[in-house]
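Hey, quick one: can you model this chain's 3D structure?
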Amino acid sequence: MKKLLRHHVLQGESLISRHRWKRLAIACFVMLCLMLASSGTGCTKGQIHPAPTADGACGLPEDNAPLVTQTVLRTRLMDIPEQLQHPEDLQAGQVLEITLFEDAQYRARIRPLSRDTRGTLTLTADVEEYPGGSVIAVETDGKFLITIDIPSERKNYIIRFDLKAERYRVDEVLIQELPH
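Sure thing. Here's the predicted structure for all 180 residues.
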């Protein structure tokens, strides 16, 4: 994450706001829970989980860290957007057209991409017409894990590959912080 921030600073881009960091930390936590759930351990639907730590790490909480719940509101099988089926052709500035559900269709402009030494592609995009809306997509071994956050609408979506169905599945997720 620090490397990504340094990359943006070196290119003259503005620093990410505190609100965006918080959303990114929550998205990181949700992605970690989903990966653990798909491996048969860790987080499950509707279970209470510790929130990410203040520095954005996804780990065990401190005593004063809030708890969050994650509930799937609706789900369906889907194909990922055409542009993501050929990640080698993706470029900053391209527009992704994402149809999640009949009433949830978004356009997102891709920001600069990064690929680490292991070949993992990280893509972030700003959702058009929804200030603060973001897409975070991580591709490794030809499979994507994607989170879409629309804070003005209080909407959160997660797209991941369903091994049993051999297709992608989108979940609309309600994420709530619980008081201590």
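One thing worth noting: The radius of gyration is 16 Å.
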